[in-house]
């Protein structure tokens, strides 16, 4: 069931004065306002650490225990654990003084209207779902830091100074684990999710629509279309996320600004051969799909390591395109399956690059060479495109504000002027990719140990969680 604390109103009312008053009654010793947003007293710094570090870390740990599995973290779209996580996030949003609701795609929203509810809103978000055997920071960090930053402002009596509405969104699905369709939550809000997605089914045969219905969310093709936000009502979108790479750790800084997100293509390659007996079919007559698939996978690796050795220069593929690929192209193979028999081999291919034209050139060259290899081996090769997302450039103006906020946060925590905030590219996909179809976007990366993600070994230090929360707080204060 959806959280009883979260509703689905047509309009979003202001947080009541009684709620704000109750917060101050609970914590009477804390100051409700500061003489200046740039002056931080000892008590205010204590508040920042208590909320943005200690409580935020405790909530990340608590959320990390909400799982559908006993021995590892797994939270997929509309699973029991996903619903429990949404309920918990609702509670924390309301604790921060936000009005909450759950929409028809299972996204959890928390909103404060600000001084001028008619102004365009700032959206802050990330995803509450996980991969299988996940870490507890991917997705959750962006949600918790946003809620904590707004709570800190609320306790300081500054939430009411926001000039525009601010809305935190915990997206229901970004990973695409259950239905093999990424960005279900953010794509619905951005208005780029096809209504046919409602009828995509998981391994058990249950559709997206059925999974929502099982949690008392009735979603039709008509009200799915109504989920799209009016672009004229949105000012911008920002997202905090773990880096999922080693760059920030290498340079010794906790925060980095994201310049852009690589485009992605996911392929499913099926090789069909003949199920010849292991001992009776001579080598020259064999049609083994596994060896053919192995050659295709090695081809993929070689092509993506040295694209300049494979791509021809013509009107569609210039020297600058190949040079761009050399710096950003990454190709990997995910699942490999021999089901339903040894005569069939299926594997998935993930291709990412900042240059969309170059990515298309890679796919074209890869496909042609794969077909030739399969012909030579007398096996059938089928290549299906399962997912495409163009590269996204983050907005320069919004990014400049976010970079300045990150710089301010690092200075406040260390007491010293930090080195310049580094600028990175993201090879991983994020909800910001879908949201870029709705509004301008900006992203902040947070250092993670060893660059490890999608693993129980995924780790962000308590101080780096604090730095991220401080950066969002500093950004929100620019809206006052």
UniProtKB/TrEMBL annotation:
UniProt organism field: Buddleja alternifolia
Catalytic activity: allantoate + H2O + 2 H(+) = (S)-2-ureidoglycine + NH4(+) + CO2
CC annotations in GO: endoplasmic reticulum
Family of the protein in this entry: Belongs to the peptidase M20A family.
Subcellular location: Endoplasmic reticulum
NCBIfam families recorded: hydantase
UniProt keyword list: Endoplasmic reticulum, Hydrolase, Manganese, Metal-binding, Purine metabolism, Signal
E.C. designation(s): 3.5.3.9
Annotated signal peptide: 1-33
The organism's place on the tree of life at top rank: Eukaryota
GO terms (BP aspect): purine nucleobase metabolic process
Gene Ontology molecular function: allantoate deiminase activity; metal ion binding
Subunit and interaction comment: Homodimer.
Named cofactor requirement(s): Mn(2+)
Protein name (record): allantoate deiminase
Primary site of residence: endoplasmic reticulum
């Amino acid at each position: 069931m959806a959280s009883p604390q979260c509703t689905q109103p047509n309009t979003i009312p202001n947080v009541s004065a009684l709620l704000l008053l109750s917060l101050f009654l609970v914590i009477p010793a804390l100051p409700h306002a500061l003489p200046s947003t740039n002056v931080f007293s000892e008590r205010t710094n204590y508040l920042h650490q208590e909320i943005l570090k200690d409580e935020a870390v405790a909530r990340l740990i608590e959320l990390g225990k909400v799982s559908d599995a006993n021995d590892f973290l797994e939270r997929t779209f509309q699973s029991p654990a996903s619903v429990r996580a949404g309920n918990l996030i609702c509670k924390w949003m309301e604790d921060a003084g936000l009005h909450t609701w759950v929409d028809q795609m299972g996204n959890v929203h928390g909103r404060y209207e600000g001084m001028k509810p008619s102004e365009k809103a700032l959206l802050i978000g990330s995803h509450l779902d996980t991969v299988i055997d996940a870490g507890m920071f991917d997705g959750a960090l962006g949600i918790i830091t946003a809620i904590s930053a707004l709570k800190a402002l609320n306790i300081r009596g500054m939430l009411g100074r926001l000039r525009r509405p601010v809305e935190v969104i915990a997206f229901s699905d970004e990973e695409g684990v259950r239905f093999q369709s990424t960005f279900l939550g953010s794509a619905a809000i951005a208005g780029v999710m096809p209504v046919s997605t409602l009828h995509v089914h998981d391994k058990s045969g249950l559709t997206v629509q059925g999974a929502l219905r099982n949690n008392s969310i009735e979603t039709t093709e008509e009200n799915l279309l109504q989920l799209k936000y009016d672009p004229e009502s949105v000012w911008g979108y920002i997202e905090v996320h773990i880096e999922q790479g080693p760059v920030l750790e290498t340079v010794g800084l906790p925060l980095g600004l994201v310049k852009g997100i690589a485009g992605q293509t996911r392929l499913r390659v099926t090789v069909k051969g003949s199920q010849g007996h292991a001992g009776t079919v001579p080598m020259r007559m064999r049609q083994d799909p596994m060896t053919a698939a192995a050659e295709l996978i090695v081809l993929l690796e070689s092509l993506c390591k040295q694209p300049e050795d494979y791509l021809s220069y013509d009107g569609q593929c210039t020297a600058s395109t190949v040079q761009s690929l050399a710096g950003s192209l990454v190709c990997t193979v995910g699942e490999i399956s021999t089901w339903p028999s040894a005569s069939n081999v299926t594997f998935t291919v993930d291709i990412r690059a900042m240059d969309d034209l170059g990515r298309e050139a890679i796919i074209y060259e890869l496909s042609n060479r794969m077909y030739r290899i399969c012909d030579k081996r007398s096996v059938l090769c089928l290549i299906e495109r399962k997912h495409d997302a163009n590269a996204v450039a983050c907005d320069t103006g919004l990014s400049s504000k976010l970079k300045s906020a990150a710089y301010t946060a690092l200075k406040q925590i260390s007491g010293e002027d930090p080195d310049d905030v580094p600028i990175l590219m993201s090879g991983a996909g994020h909800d910001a990719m879908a949201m870029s179809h709705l509004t301008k976007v900006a992203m902040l990366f947070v250092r993670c140990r060893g660059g490890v993600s999608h693993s129980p070994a995924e780790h962000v230090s308590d101080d780096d969680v604090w730095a991220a929360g401080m950066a969002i707080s500093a950004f929100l204060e620019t809206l006052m």
